[in-house]
DNA sequence: AAAATAGTTGGAAACGTTTGCCAATTAAGG
DNA sequence: CCTTAATTGGCAAACGTTTCCAACTATTTT
């Protein structure tokens, strides 16, 4: 790459002012006489001057860039969050460096380190638990981090999410209330605390309220994918299960289609409730009854919170963990 | 943000060498004695030194960052491409600045300008036509740009895609071959040349081969969304249409569900072929017969091509427009 | 009319790297 | 040992901004 042709210095020379003045007009500093400002602006337009953000970043120690780590961009849940993040980021003039982590601890660590090297002003983290290594990395920097739409085994990080436990409890209770004898808990990796902790607790709590014993054989663990759900249909039919709370929409959609393709009638012969209210729940037939969450808003609010932290607004320490309201919609995968 | 605490200079001092040497070991320059290298490496680890990528970018004029402009990250088509892009980007140690353009000319221009200001080493552009303003912008820079999975009214830009015209022709012909009297062309905005040009030509060409006249009333334009498809079902039923080639999967899924919900049996009473083979086609029931394209590969190859261009490898000018093979799968939305 | 004040501008030192050039050290050959 | 050629390492100049501080100008104030 050859030397940048028109720099702040070129503009300064052409407009017969100093670089300091050019810098001021570019950055909207009011201490510039209107005529001078206009003259500089004219030269800028004429020369098609484009300020170099890298140099600016070095001098000002702000890059107006935030890092976003996402497990899988093609997952509708995370994609929806990402949309909210991006929208408010661009509203606040931030750019986003987006990196897929594949939920792989090693890779996560690498991408975060890289993000930090790039001097991002902040990080939005979506994913599952954070490794000790990563924890140290976060601790060793004062770049603000917010966790979005996930629960992570590090309470020290600000986060924006819903109350997964309460939501799971309601979903399970809903199934129980309508007489299901046994409700399975079909989940993504139990290695993630959101599944083995929050949601499972909610599930158990609903069981307890209904005076049902927890039956270990009813928790069915998968990798959380559509394919996994589809494949599990057979096993679930064989087990004689008639109702299930599912922790993920892709998984639920797979299960539903697997069931249907195997001739099981949903909701008549099987009732199903899912967790995230992504597009998938409305795409399949029957449509899936689900916990609802304001996905876009979770992303948007996370980013908004991050902007505050980046501005050094450390007030409202109590607001650092934002729990948004969730809801519930009955659709076609449960009986009326 | 306070001054970075440990810099290359700190390391140099601690290791009793010059910054030049530290720079060399960090960048794997071979001209440094093994012991020296080891000593420096030790200090780096001990101090947890993290090279400042911004300073590096300024000095070296390379940011190892590429800009990606995407119309909508939640669209499964683009998300799938993005995944391929991200994977090979990280393979080549590039980061990605991802920006949603919302297919809005004004916003596109702004984000591209911003990307350029950030000194990205290259740009992957997904979207529709490029405005004159944007064309000038691309022309005024020598940052390489590649167009991925889209057709854009600027032949001068390298691109990676399939032959949309041929694919549309095959899809239409498929429907015609099995006796459909009239095949509708249900499309996203005709303002985009991919729809008004490539695909429509393919459609017409298939009609001509089958000695059918082109009927303007059979081209139905929408905004391309799921909702639009769903809403159009009524009109399509009223028009007595029995078969359609649809230019987008979201649109097709919406239409399919709209039809089904209105009591139309697909494929018995209506046959449907879609264009992109995204997850949506397999999620809905009946599953949608579709043109297939290697989505992930399109993204991956685009990025690979971009790396070559960024390396200044301008050989193979003929390879600058990569047309990948497409296919076709019969699924359940067409009769056997 | 001198002094104080406010408003504009310029000068120059950062910011943390990379890199071209040159000096010094080491190894090799005679 | 001396000469020559590698190899290694250091110096310092970029890179293109921001920003602190000083200086200058034009107003007010006294």
From TrEMBL, chains A, B:
GO terms for molecular function: DNA-binding transcription factor activity; transcription cis-regulatory region binding. InterPro entries: CcpA (IPR006377), HTH_LacI (IPR000843), Lambda_DNA-bd_dom_sf (IPR010982), Peripla_BP/Lac1_sug-bd_dom (IPR001761), Peripla_BP_I (IPR028082). Pfam families: LacI, Peripla_BP_1. Residues 6-60 form the HTH lacI-type domain. Keywords: Activator, DNA-binding, Repressor, Transcription, Transcription regulation. It comes from the Bacteria. Global transcriptional regulator of carbon catabolite repression (CCR) and carbon catabolite activation (CCA), which ensures optimal energy usage under diverse conditions. NCBIfam families: ccpA. This is Catabolite control protein A. It comes from Limosilactobacillus albertensis.
């Amino acid at each position: 790459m050859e030397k940048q042709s028109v720099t702040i210095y070129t503009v300064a020379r052409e407009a017969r002012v100093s670089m300091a003045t050019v810098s001021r007009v570019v950055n909207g500093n009011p201490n510039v006489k209107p005529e001078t400002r206009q003259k500089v602006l004219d030269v800028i337009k004429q020369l098609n001057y484009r300020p170099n953000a890298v140099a600016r970043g070095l001098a000002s120690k702000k890059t107006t860039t935030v890092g976003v780590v996402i497990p899988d961009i093609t997952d509708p849940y995370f994609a929806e969050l990402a949309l909210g993040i991006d929208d408010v980021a661009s509203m606040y003039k931030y750019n986003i460096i987006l990196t897929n982590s594949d939920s792989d601890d090693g890779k996560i660590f690498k991408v975060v380190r890289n993000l930090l090297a790039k001097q991002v002003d902040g990080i939005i983290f979506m994913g599952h638990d954070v490794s000790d290594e990563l924890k140290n990395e976060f601790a060793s920097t004062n770049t603000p981090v917010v966790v979005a739409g996930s629960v992570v085994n590090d309470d020290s990080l600000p986060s924006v999410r819903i109350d997964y436990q309460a939501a799971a409890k309601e979903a399970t209770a809903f199934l129980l209330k309508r007489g299901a004898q046994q409700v399975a808990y079909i989940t993504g990796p139990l290695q993630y605390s959101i599944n083995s902790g929050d949601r499972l607790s909610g599930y158990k709590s609903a069981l307890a309220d209904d005076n049902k014993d927890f039956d270990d054989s009813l928790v069915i663990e998968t990798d959380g994918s559509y394919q996994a759900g589809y494949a599990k249909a057979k096993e679930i039919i064989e087990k004689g299960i008639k109702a299930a709370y599912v922790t993920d929409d892709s998984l639920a959609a797979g299960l539903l289609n697997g069931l249907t393709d195997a001739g099981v009638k949903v909701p008549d012969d099987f009732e199903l409730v899912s967790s995230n209210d992504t597009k998938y729940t409305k795409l399949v037939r029957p449509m899936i009854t689900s916990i609802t969450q304001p996905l876009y808003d979770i992303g948007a609010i996370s980013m908004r919170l991050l902007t505050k932290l980046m501005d050094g607004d450390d007030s409202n320490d109590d607001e650092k963990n934002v729990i948004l309201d969730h809801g519930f919609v009955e659709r076609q995968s449960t009986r009326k």
